[in-house]
Amino acid sequence: MTLSRPITPAASALRDKFREVRATSLALAAPLSAEDQCIQSMPDASPTKWHLAHTTWFFETVLLQPHAAGYQPFDVRFHYLFNSYYEALGPRHPRPHRGLLTRPSVDEVHAYRRHVDEAVVALLEAGAFDWAAIEPIVTLGLNHEQQHQELLLTDILHALSCNPMLPAYKPASGPALRLAAVPPAVRWIAQPGGVVEVGFAGQPEFSFDNETPRHQALVQPHAIADRLVNCGDYAQFIADGGYQRPELWLSDGWAAVQANGWRHPAYWLAPDDPRLGFGAQTQGAASWHVFGLHGVRPMEADAPVSQLSFYEAAAYAEWAGARLPTEFEWEAAYDAPGISQMTGHVWQWTRSSYDPYPGFRPMPGIAAEYNGKFMVGQLVLRGGSVATPAGHTRPSYRNFFPPAARWQFSGLRLAKDL
To answer: What is the CATH code of the structural domain delimited by 188-263+303-417?
Structure first.
């Protein structure tokens, strides 16, 4: 007979964090109907229901099955349905077809979550486990779920943007916040350059393996903008023919503009957009509107521009006589006096390829597939957005997407050489 030990303060805190993060995912899905939660609007996005199930699959497959004695899977078929890209764990349902999974139902997915949650809490409360083995898995699983909480919002926003009625994910309780009538001019903050320390600095925070090892990087003298590029700035780029001037664009970017018919950021609506007529508040609109989580709202000139691809960010920087910062310049400037909007607004494209740091080693075990195998053909974004869970980011956090991705809350900050 195995006797359980009293739960330790550390295990108790981890259990409480587990409950908090898991509850947040359900709260984010709560405004959505069962139909909303099943839709997949493009191969790069996933249904809300799939996000809820996949994050549960992670705890079941990586934590419970190897480490919880006597654990019985909720449904062995889910191992195939909700694997994402872990080759070591076997075959999986094709990513582009996740929207075809009308079953299991949302209710069944919720039951799956309850089954796994009860088992994880029981494991942590029993106390009879190897803390050194269990704690890193639970912590990774919670950070993994927070990433999917952000993806849940970005993916459902893309799906709702495909609906001609442009329904709000969660209608705002009041009118649009009025920001400064005249956006402040950009101030340039000079940075001396030299050798800087970059990467995760160590305890007590968690980090993903792609933030390590901490190392030295050489940056040249430069200046970095004190704020993000805002919608008013970007509207001037559009008005100056930015999307019709090939000299501003990288070759692949210009090809993307032509192939996709880009004329403005994703989710911007021009005054003549017929979809504006679906809402009484926007009929007869005389200016840009923007579709977001709260529905269609008048464009706020002072709000950071969002839903830009890397190509659009680079073209704007060229038009502005500047460039995008490298990820090391961005990180070195994180705490510089006078710089604002470094996190919590939009992810900020950098000019850095998503490459391994010198001496990079992936996490051991199954988690080895988490980040390292994507280190090709992607660009680094820094900062964190309005959809990023509070406390999830840090100065060394490296997000990454292919250069044409524009359904994320992604914008830019300018830099220039000195």
So the answer is: 3.90.1580.10
At 178, is the secondary structure helix, strand, or coil? coil
Mean pLDDT of 134-150: 97
Q: What pairing do the DSSP bridges indicate for beta strands 399-401 and 410-411?
A: unpaired
**DSSP secondary structure string, 15-74?**
HHHHHHHHHHHHHHHTTS-HHHHH---STT---HHHHHHHHHHHIIIIIIHHHSTT---S
Confidence of residue 278 (pLDDT cuts 50, 70, 90): low
- Residue 15 contacts residue 127 (beta carbons within 8 Å): no
Dig out the tokens for 308 from the structure.
């830009």
Rounded to 10 degrees, the C-alpha dihedral 353/44/50/103 comes to -160
With contact defined as beta carbons under 8 Å apart, do 383 and 418 qualify? no
Core vs surface per residue 169-185: b (16+ CB within 10 A) or e: beeeeeebeeeeeebee
3-state secondary structure of 140: helix
Token pair of 327 as six digits: 């990820």
What average pLDDT does the segment 158-187 reach?
80
CA-to-CA distance for 328 and 382, rounded, in angstroms?
10
Which among 170, 172, 165 is positioned nearest to 152, based on CA atoms? 170
Given this model, what pLDDT does residue 205 score? Answer: 82
Nearest one of 405, 375, 389, 349 to 148, comparing CA atoms: 389
131-161 and 48-58 helices, crossing angle to 10°: 170
- Nearest-angstrom CA–CA distance, 374 and 341: 28
When pLDDT is averaged across residues 373-397 and rounded to a whole number, the result is 96
CA 12/CA 121 separation, integer angstroms: 9
Distances (CA, A) of 59 to 66, 105, 301, 380: 10, 20, 43, 28
